[in-house]
């Protein structure tokens, strides 16, 4: 009787253990299955994060290349590049659903395409403008060279005209006279008898010279290097001239004969020198002798 009861109790224990074993197996299977699902989800999230980060890296690289070209859109490109960098930081720190980040990334990609297209358009315009500018520069350079040639030719022509327009003074004649109280003039070559010198010269005709009053400064120097006459001093371009008298002539492009008197006393024996100046330039010279 006792054996039967022990056998029944043993069977009951075995049955309970069997049930527990089956339950444990079921729990272990379920736990293993859930773990695999979690691992699968985590693996998928990591893969998605890597994919998003890779796309963002490519987006950033595109901006970096465009910024390196240093166009007029560089500031705007830098701002968008910085947004990409910020989103990359957010993605790296995220844990979970990446759909919001993908949406932001898509918006950034669309913005990038628009900006890059606009940047390429500006680059093409710059190429056209540079070509036009280079062509204009060539034309301007040629024009400058041509103008410089013309200026050089004009300068040479102006020099020729200026040279040709200068008046020629020639045929200086010098005579000594004894002027009596009656006004009668008696020619002499004796210094002691002389009380007046008569200086005459000719201004040649010149069609291209400027007409109008012309003033010449006449300088008469005796044998002792004294300037006779008024002995006035005038300056031209930093240099001074002491002259005996001036002669102003109304010039009308035709030959003019000029004659001036230089009164004096105590004339020295020897050679006298006559210099005629047009301002500070000597235009004619001569000499004569008194005994």
Q: Specify the CATH class of the largest domain.
A: Mainly Beta
The tally of domains stands at: 2
Distance between the termini: 195 Å
Structural class: alpha+beta
Helical fraction: 40-55%
Tell me the CATH topology of the largest domain. Immunoglobulin-like
CATH-defined superfamily of the largest domain: Immunoglobulins
In spatial order, strands of the major sheet run 2-1-3-8
Radius of gyration: 58 Å
Tell me the CATH architecture of the largest domain.
Sandwich
Beta content: 25-35%
Order of helices and strands: HHHEEEEEEEEEE
3D shape = rod-shaped
Number of strands: 10
Runs in which pLDDT lies below 50 for 5 or more consecutive residues are 37-44
Number of helices: 3
Q: Averaging pLDDT over every residue, what do you get? A: 81
């Amino acid at each position: 009787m006792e054996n039967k009861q022990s056998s029944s109790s043993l069977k009951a224990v075995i049955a309970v253990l069997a049930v527990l074993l089956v339950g444990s197996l079921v729990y272990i299977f379920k736990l293993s299955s859930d773990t695999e699902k979690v691992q699968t989800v985590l693996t998928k999230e990591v893969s998605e994060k890597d994919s998003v980060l890779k796309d963002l890296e490519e987006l950033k690289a595109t901006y970096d290349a465009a910024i390196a070209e240093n166009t007029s859109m560089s500031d705007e490109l830098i701002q968008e590049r910085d947004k990409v960098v910020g989103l990359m930081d957010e993605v790296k720190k995220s844990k979970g659903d990446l759909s919001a980040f993908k949406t932001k990334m898509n918006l950034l990609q669309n913005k990038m395409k628009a900006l890059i297209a606009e940047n390429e358009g500006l680059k093409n315009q710059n190429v056209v403008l540079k070509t036009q500018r280079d062509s204009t520069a060539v034309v301007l350079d040629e024009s400058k060279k041509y103008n410089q040639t013309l200026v050089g030719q004009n300068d040479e022509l102006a020099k020729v005209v200026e040279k040709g327009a200068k008046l020629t003074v020639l045929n200086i004649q010098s005579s000594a006279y004894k002027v009596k109280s009656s006004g009668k003039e008696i020619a002499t070559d004796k210094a002691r008898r002389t009380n007046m010198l008569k200086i005459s010269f000719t201004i040649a005709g010149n069609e291209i010279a400027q007409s109008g009053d012309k003033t010449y400064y006449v300088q008469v120097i005796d044998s002792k290097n004294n300037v006779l006459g008024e002995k006035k001093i005038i300056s031209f371009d930093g240099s001074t001239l002491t002259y005996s008298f001036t002669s102003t002539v109304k010039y009308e492009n035709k030959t003019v004969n000029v004659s001036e008197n230089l009164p004096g006393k105590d004339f020295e024996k020897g050679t006298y020198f006559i210099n005629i100046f047009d301002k500070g330039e000597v235009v004619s010279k001569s000499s004569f002798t008194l005994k």
